[in-house]
Design goal:
- The chain is an alpha+beta fold and 207 residues long.
- The chain folds into 2 domains: 75 residues, Glutaredoxin; 115 residues, Glutathione S-transferase Yfyf (Class Pi), Chain A, domain 2.
- It has 9 helices and 4 strands; from the N terminus they run βαβαββααααααα.
- Helix 4 packs parallel to helix 7.
- The radius of gyration is 17 Å and the shape is globular.
- It binds glutathione (GSH).
- The site of glutathione has 9 residues, from helix 1.
- Glutathione binds next to helix 1.
Length: 207
């Protein structure tokens, strides 16, 4: 059985967990905080969460894990069958992850853990996150899901990345990231009710 390492409070852990639920895979959750300790680094070389273990092999990075899960359990697929549509879904997921969430994360210590950030860092992050949101908005198809008519990895990254980016943006530069993107807000409301996502949310709240 697949072991999923990390903590339920992590958005990327939650994302991978939702994928396994979507695919009906059996898995065991193992509590593993992000540390630079040897055993954790063996599982996940940056010490981050999540990671999985399959037959004694460790794998980190949510996109690599999803790619593996997609191959061992192709149905239901989290990518459109058409190759270019599948690539567009991954493109959108990457822009959400790298240009919105990861950009905003630079201010995470200041926003949530009592750290400090220079005015320059706040302003450069603001500009980058807004540019990322423009890219996401340009690529987002809707109708009804992020990449088109089926639920894909793009919806998962949208669901699990926007919360953190929105919170950080509100706190650090008093900007409501979703205010100019009602289509994204509506999609997020729909995704929150999806059974896999609702289950992950409920279990994280229960601890
Ligand atoms: N690129 C990684 C990101 C994982 C990540 O940033 N995890 C966070 C928790 S949501 C973490 O472990 N942070 C602790 C750290 O940065 O040391 C992925 O997609 O899986």
């Amino acid at each position: 059985m697949i072991k999923l390492y990390g903590l339920r409070m992590s958005n990327y852990y939650s994302l991978v967990k939702a994928v396994m639920i979507e695919k009906g895979l059996e898995f065991e959750e193992v509590k593993a905080p992000p540390t630079q300790k040897e055993d954790n680094l063996a599982r996940t070389p940056m010490g981050k969460m999540p990671s999985i273990e399959v037959d004694g092999v460790y794998l980190s990075e949510s996109m690599a894990i999803i790619n593996y899960l997609e191959q061992i359990q192709p149905e239901p697929s989290l990518l459109p069958a058409n190759p270019i549509e599948a690539a567009k879904a991954v493109e959108l997921a990457l822009h959400i992850k790298l240009d919105v969430e990861l950009a905003a994360r630079r201010l995470l210590p200041a926003a949530m853990f009592g750290g400090t950030a220079s005015e320059e860092l706040i302003e450069s992050t603001r500009q980058e996150v807004l540019r990322g949101m423009q890219a996401v908005s340009q690529l987002l198809v809707g109708k009804p899901y992020a990449a088109g008519d089926t639920f894909t990895v793009a919806d998962l990254y949208l669901n699990y990345s926007m919360g953190l980016a929105t919170t950080i943006s509100k706190k650090m530069f008093d900007h409501d990231l979703l205010a100019d993107h009602p289509q994204i807000s509506e999609l997020l409301a729909m995704l929150a009710e999806r059974p896999s996502i609702a289950q992950v949310t409920a279990e994280a709240a229960a601890k």
